Amino acid sequence: MNTKSKIALVTGGSRGLGKNAALKIAQKGLDVIITYKSSREEADAVVNEIKALGQNAIAYQLDTRDVKSFDAFVKNITDHLQTETGHSNIDFLINNAGTALYAPITETTEEQLDDIVDVHFKGVFFLTQKMLPFINDGGGIINISSGLARFALPGSSVYGSMKAGVEMLTKYMAKELGPRKIKANVIAPGAIETDFGGGRTRDDQNVNSMISSITALGRAGLPDDIGGVVAFLCTEDAGWITGQRIEASGGMFL
User: Fold this and answer.
1) Choice among 36, 60, 102, 159 that is catalytic
2) Catalytic residue at 172?
3) Three-state secondary structure of 18-79
4) For residue 189, what are the β-bridge partners?
């Protein structure tokens, strides 16, 4: 890591929106730490892409539903930073890692609900808590929500509700961390063409056409539509933005 570059940590940065955000952040001149859940190969490929942009990068395995692993994870990255840069801190935490659940209320199991709570709320809450001593004053937290926290589509009751919880949590983060000049904002993507949720938006033409038909800009989203917004919030130009929900959906259900 470069002692002069700011540093961002992107969970779930090995694929999809997280990968795009990590690359766009690197293009802004930041060094990047990414996490991956299972594919070291995918993560290493992203690290190499970031290095090709002239920034430093490293990947760590992390399951954001496993809160008990967070202490060891934080120690690993802070020890690495201390060795490489002489300090243990990062500047931006991007809570991006997530999984999908498509199930009607009548069929959702307790195990499914618990899993979504652990990944999308409990994991976000406690990873942020564990990282707060190592986020520089004046830095930022960026949480990823969903358009499904604003509008309802059948089958997304648990996922959408957890994202709504994250949106409120972000306001509390902004309020409580304001004295440290740490900004906290939440980005709510619309439907994006990635492998998320089995790639439904990308691969199912009926789903893609439906999304296009209810979106003001007339198409489903792409990773490039989101990563740049995340990267913007990691710049000085966004220094006066905090406690805000920024929806990047192309105008779904206006």
Assistant:
1) 159
2) no
3) HHHHHHHHHHCCCEEEEEECCCHHHHHHHHHHHHHCCCCEEEEECCCCCHHHHHHHHHHHHH
4) 248
Task: Give me the mean pLDDT over the 29-53 stretch.
Answer: 97
Q: Count of CB atoms within 10 A of residue 110's CB?
A: 7
Q: Which amino acid is at 131?
A: M
- Decide if 37 contacts 123 (C-beta within 8 A): no
pTM of the model: 0.95
- Minimal CA–CA distance to 144: which of 39, 63, 224, 226? 226
What is the residue-wise DSSP string for 145-207?
A: --GGGTS--TT-HHHHHHHHHHHHHHHHHHHHHGGGT-EEEEEEE--BSSSGGGTHHHH-HHH
Q: With respect to CATH, is domain 7-248 assigned 3.10.310.30?
A: no
Residues 147-195: tens digit of each pLDDT: 999 999 999 999 999 999 999 999 999 999 999 999 999 999 999 887 7
